[in-house]
Write a structure and sequence with these properties.
By secondary structure, the protein is an alpha+beta fold. About 40% of the residues lie in helices and about 25% in strands. It is built from 3 helices and 5 strands.
Length: about 110
């Protein structure tokens, strides 16, 4: 379960600054350039694959009929493009391992 911690753009820029040693301004520009390139590529409908991290892609969804859960009324859902992220096996493994280490499963704690 997430504890309300979110990594921000400025924190990413600061992390690059700490690791790379460029000026803070250069690190900020570098991060903006990378994020801009990723955004441009996805906007064109192309995928972005970052080794050991994952793949961002755009998927087209067709028009379909949905249902309002409150009223049961049928509602048309228009065609749209959605952003999809598929994590790499390396990232999945890291996240899973971190979960187990920080939140061990209690044998008596069943829903």
């Amino acid at each position: 379960m997430m504890v309300g911690r979110t990594l921000t753009r400025s924190q990413l820029s600061e992390a690059v600054y700490q690791e790379v040693g460029l000026s803070r301004n250069e690190c900020s520009k570098l991060l903006e350039s990378v994020l801009s390139k990723i955004s441009e590529t996805l906007t064109k409908g192309e995928s972005v694959k970052i080794s050991t991290f994952g793949t961002f892609s755009v998927r087209s969804k067709n028009r379909r009929i949905g249902r309002n859960p409150k009223t049961g009324e049928e509602v048309p859902i228009l065609p749209r493009r959605v952003l999809v992220f598929r994590p790499s096996q390396v990232l999945k493994s890291r996240v899973s391992r971190h979960q187990v280490i920080n939140n061990p499963v209690d044998e008596n704690d069943h829903p």
